Structure to design on (153 residues):
């Protein structure tokens, strides 16, 4: 799908506020409401827009700790990448997963209440993922900025 400047502007505005009304969105991008709605629908149908989310504060601020995990695979072949990604999708505890350049192959995010919960995730899930050579985990101190939550494909 080819994305033009109007589509990019629609996507930018929806990232800032996914609850923006179609009328306001249309006004901001310079389209009629019906043309704007049609463009959003095309972006959704093509998979460019995969979904919408709500950012929710934890009931007890600081109750959840974000853990950033860098994974290095034994090999970077298509087979290893596909097997790893298929396995990741089976675990709802993993909130985000990015294929990376640089020192590690993947970066993951999980949210835990404490170190005991992370230890379980590490032992039961991360250590059992196919093709994993190295796992490096970092615990966040606090969230400085969140604009959206991870969404799986």
């Amino acid at each position: 799908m080819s994305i033009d400047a109007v589509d990019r502007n629609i996507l930018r505005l929806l990232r800032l506020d996914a609850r923006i009304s179609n009328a306001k969105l249309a006004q901001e991008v310079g389209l009629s409401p019906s043309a704007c709605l049609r463009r959003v629908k095309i972006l959704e149908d093509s998979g460019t827009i995969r979904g919408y989310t709500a950012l929710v504060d934890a009931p007890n601020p600081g109750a959840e700790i974000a853990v950033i995990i860098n994974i290095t695979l034994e090999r970077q072949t298509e087979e290893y990448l596909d097997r790893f990604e298929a396995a990741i999708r089976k675990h709802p505890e993993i909130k985000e997963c990015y294929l990376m350049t640089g020192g590690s192959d993947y970066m993951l995010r999980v949210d835990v209440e404490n170190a005991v919960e992370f230890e379980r995730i590490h032992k039961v899930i991360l250590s059992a993922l196919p093709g994993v050579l190295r796992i490096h985990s970092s615990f966040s101190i606090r969230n400085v900025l969140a604009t959206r939550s991870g969404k799986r494909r």
